[in-house]
Design a protein that fits this description.
By secondary structure, this protein is mainly alpha-helical. The chain has 3 helices and no strands.
Length: about 60
């Protein structure tokens, strides 16, 4: 699990009402799914950022 998910789990374990409710509503599964999707897109995002940076350095030509 990623850092943000671990923080949520700690708050659930501590009994923080809003986080306990979010767990009941399936937030951990949602967060995990979103994290996996972001990890899968990381190379594409890095490539796009690198291309945009190179383009800006060359004057956008």
């Amino acid at each position: 699990m990623f850092a943000g998910g671990r923080a949520v789990v700690r708050k659930i374990a501590a009994g923080v009402p809003a986080f306990v409710q979010m767990e009941r509503e399936g937030i951990l599964a949602t967060l995990d799914s979103q994290h996996r999707a972001a990890e899968q897109l990381r190379p594409l995002i890095a490539h796009a950022v690198a291309g945009a940076s190179a383009e800006s350095l060359s004057g956008g030509e």
